[in-house]
């Protein structure tokens, strides 16, 4: 197993609805790619701040908070980061998950849910970390990508 990318970064609230594109080079001879992606914190722990943010949002989209008797069902508010993948010649999909710790595998015959199987070809691949919602002051993330040879795929 060869580590071919190790990235760490931090998003802030203003980064909501933005993406970071991370190109990485894959040498010939590999059978699979393993992606380990994590971010933290997942939840906004300050309930008073969360309720204030909900009031603003619900007033904009659904009416006053007082008209929403079950508004606490929206709590806790959560950050949401996702991972997308591009082979040199194709878009392979996205891991649109709530879990803040994820592991995904891509090979010619198999792909984790949300991705398409694809031959592990030589060239420039790209991973995109998508900040759908950063509700906390900051949200740090890590991405590790490993190239796997045939015996490591078993």
How would you explain this protein's 3D organization?
This protein has 1 helix and 8 strands, in the order E-E-E-H-E-E-E-E-E. It is mainly beta and 154 residues long. It has a single domain, classed as Sandwich (Jelly Rolls). The strands form 2 sheets. A 4-stranded antiparallel sheet has the order 1-8-3-6, with no helix packed on it. It has a 4-stranded antiparallel sheet with strand order 2-7-4-5, with no helix packed on it. A hairpin with a 2-residue loop joins strand 4 and strand 5. The longest helix has 15 residues. The protein is elongated and about 60 Å long.
Q: What brief labels describe this structure?
A:
four-stranded antiparallel beta sheet; mainly beta; Jelly Rolls; 154 residues; single chain; 8 strands; 10% helix
What is this structure, in a nutshell?
With 154 residues, the protein is mainly beta. It contains one helix and eight strands; from the N terminus they run βββαβββββ. 10% of the residues lie in helices and 47% in strands.
